[in-house]
Every structure is written in structure tokens, then in C-alpha cells.
Amino acid sequence: MAVMAMVTVSSSSSATIFSDSKPPPSFTYRKLASSHHRNHHFTFPISSSSTQIHPHRRPSFHVTCQAAGNDTVFEPPKVYQGVYGPWSVDSSDIREVVLYRSGLVTAATSFVLASSAAFLPDDFMLTGFLKQNIDIPYAIGAAGLGLSLVLIHIYVTEIKRTLQALWLLGVVGSIAAKICLAQPADESLVQYVVDNPAAVWFVGPLFAALTGLVFKEGLCYGKLEAGILTFIIPSVLLGHLSGLMDDGVKVSLLGVWMALFVLFAARKFTQPIKDDIGDKSVFTFKALPEEEKTALIQKLEQQRLSES
Asked: What is the rounded CA–CA span in Å between residue 180 and residue 135?
């Protein structure tokens, strides 16, 4: 806030006043507040009604201070009523939600980049480069999915841990298949899985975790694209594993998967932050010791009885 303070000091006495008095001097002090890049301007004019004051009179001073500026109004955070009490969104919640959504964007972008190799012509200048380095976007996408699974808000802890365990199993299986199977065959991991359907067993848990995540999103928020992905992801993998799905069908479903995954990740940023938090009071309650949980439940029951 830019602030200007003016202090005026005037002297008065009964001494003789001459008519040739001069304008009073003024002193200006400027201070730059570098942390906010704003100027604070303090002006101290000293005014006198004469140029001479009787030596036996003590001058009297009148000080006037004036401050002017633009006040910033900070609105308090919105309070939501949860099952176990009121809660609000703080900065740590915003950071977690942004990272959660960023992980999904990373996973979707990497998946589309890796899967685009199935649609690019062989003579395209980037096709060879993409196929040679296709495991890089696969690894980046797996990391993005892992970040989202760490930060996802699910009321049932066991479900969250199951998704995380599937992700970890898929990562370990991918590394094992890369080292033990793909490298000896002089192939990338992705290409090896394409050529050897049985290798889906190694990478499948990773996509099972992704299926669980989109199922949760579709169930909680009614997102159509998430609901469709819940069926497309396992259909493509199981169709490839069993060999019962034609290559043309697999490629077509893969294209739908790519489009819906991008749409799903992009639409996450259209939701309010509070949606991905859920009822924060539930998570706060679950983190309490058992004694405090019991006391809180009793308190809430008493409040309901008194209100009724």
C-alpha cells in the first residue's frame, strides 16, 4: 500500500512579523520497499508565518499527519460443512490438488506420445526416433501416474493402498520385463509387449491402477469420459493378451483411449479445487487418535440431539 504522510510544523509568537517572509522549506524522504516494489513518500514541510521569531518566545508547534493509500481486502476462506465439522481449503490443499492434476496431465501426454507410434507412417521422419526412445515417455507417464496415486483423496484407505500397490507391482514388472526380456531381444519394452502379448502380465498392474483411478473419478464426479475409459483400458489389454481382438479393433480402441485420456486430464482443471479434496473433515477425523475420535463422535451426537 502506497502511503504518504505529511507532517507540518508551524511556529507562532507575538514577535514582529515582517512582510517579506519567504516560503517555508520542505524536506522530502523517499523509501523504496523492495519486497513489494512500492514507493513510500514522506513529506515534511516546515512552515512559518515569519522569517524572524522573538528570541524570548518559545515557538509552539502544530503537527498534522495525513496518510493515504489503497487498502487491500482479504476475504476469509470459504467454510464448508463436513460430516465431522467445518473445514476450508488452505494453501497445502491447493498445492496437492495442482500436483495431482499435473500428474494426470503428465500421464496422459506421455501415453499419447508413446501410442502415436501406432498411427504414424513408417517413413515419417519422427517415427524412427519415437520408436527408439518410446520407453522414455512410458517411464515418465508411469511416474506421473504414481504422483497422482500418492496425492489422490479416497475415503477408504484400503482402496488407495491397493491402487498404489498395483502401480508399484506394474513398475517392478516393467523394469523386470525391460531387463530380462526386452533388452536381450534388442527391443524396447513397449515394442516387446506389442510383439509378445503374454508380457501384458508384467505391465498390466500399472494399467489396472490407472483403471481404478478413472473409475473413482467417473463414480465421484459423473465424468462420461472416465466411465468409458474404465471399460476401454482393460478391454484393450485383455484383448491383446488373449489374442481374441483384431489388430484393427485394438488400434481403433487405442485411438479412442488417447482422445478420452486427454479430455479427462484437461477437464480436471475445470473443476473447483474442493472437488478433488472431498470432505476434508473425514480425513481429519481418520487422522485423530481413537480417544479423540470417540470424544468427537459423542460431541456431534449431543449437538444433533440438542438441535432436534
From this structure: 15
> Average pLDDT in the 146-161 region?
96
Q: How far apart are CA 283 and CA 85, in angstroms?
A: 11
Q: How many percent of the chain have pLDDT more than 70?
A: 76
Identify the sign of the CA torsion 177, 228, 163, 134.
positive
List all residues 6 or more positions away from 254 whose beta carbon is below 8 Å from its beta carbon: 115, 118, 236
What does the block give as the cell for 298? 459423542
Instruction: Clarify whether residues 7 and 111 are in a common domain.
Output: no
φ and ψ of 95, to 5 deg = -65, -45
Q: Is residue 283 part of a domain?
A: no
Question: Residue 103 burial (CB < 10 Å; 0-12/13-18/19+)?
Answer: buried
Grid cell digits, residue 64: 498534522
Q: How far, in Å, CA of 149 to CA of 10, rounded?
A: 71
Question: Strand, coil or helix: what is 40?
Answer: strand
Contact predicate 226/264, CB 8 Å: yes
For residue 27 the three cell numbers come to 524536506
Domain enclosing residue 8, as ranges: 1-74
Are 246 and 268 in a shared domain? yes
More confident position, 302 or 2:
302
Residue 81 and residue 109: Cα distance in Å, rounded? Answer: 36
- Choosing from 58, 74, 90, the residue where a domain stops is 74
